[in-house]
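Per reviewer request, we include the raw input and output of the structure prediction for the construct analysed in the revised manuscript.
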Amino acid sequence: MNTVRPATPTDARAVPAALLIAAILLLALNLRGPLVAVSAVVDPIRADLGIDAATVGLFTSLPVLCFGLAAPLASALLARTGTGRGVLVALAVLLVGIVVRSLGGLPAAIAGTLLLGLAITTANIAVPVVIGRDLRGHASAILGAYTATLNVGSMLSLTLTVPIAAATGWRAALASWGVLVVVAAALWWHATRRPRIEPAAGTTAPAGAPASSWRQPAAWGLTAAFAGQSFAYYGVTAWLPQLLRDELGMPAAGAGAASSVFQIAALGGAFGVPVLLRYGRARTTVLVVCAAWVTLPLGLLLAPHLWALWCVLGGAAQGGGLTVIFSLVVRVARDEAENRRFSALVQGGGYTVAAAGPPVIGAVHAATGGWTAPLLVVVAAIALLATAATAVAVGQRASRAA
């Protein structure tokens, strides 16, 4: 008697994993690059638009605030359209935002920046959902590659925007990154246009799974962990060049180049954490990441002349911290809908807190006249990351054993 065989990853209609991974990584190149490109052409933007440095800062701070406040809206869009179509909508909005930002004066630049923030918020939430749903068996490794590619996108933008602007002007230079968005949209459409394989029997969420992430301790633990991680990252990113100038007497250009070590080292953490998760416990991985993270503020406090070592260790840790939190989201969520809700809550709360990082660190520095208290604030944020993420990792292991 003929029986119907359930779909498997080898079915002809299945999306090749390599194609989907390539689409995710190309998408990642667009999720930070268009934002950080502004910092490479600050002076031409100020001169052209007649604005001060604080106003230019809105071009990077507004999107981070969107990452937090717009997360529920992005989650609702993905629930209504599905992740495949939702990301295509986000890429279309991203392209419009890039173009609008470069068209006119300050109002157009602000409007385009807000569109960028809304679009990237949607993609931020969608990526862990897609990975957890379609690539769960290799989620940690792919999340590590995704995190690393976010940093690669930032470095590409910082490296290439200046020479492009020198040849074409800052408006064309910022708008040129829309080409990469179009390429990413084409590959994403090709990778997600085929029907998705339904999960095999027994792999769906258990009956009676909670419908609301708001009532689940793991969701709040991950939100607290992401808040600590993101607050520390954005606070250090904003003020590290100034700290190096004040404490070591570096020139402005040298301090900027030195602080880039913190960003580049994130690649090591993004690829290293999946290895730790594969061969060790999640709790151990969290503690290793946090121990490396805290060497940056404590090292700069106690031995600032070894800044390069602390930037390498802290930079690798901040890349690893993002990867380990996203990996825990995928592990804890029971199905696609819960993954989406978790991602929205974790990123919404975390990025909202992160937006306060630079001004809080700056206010503490202004109030104390030194860098000891601001660095201790960073230590407290990392302690929150360590405590909350460890609690989730221990709880997740206990639930598996039950």
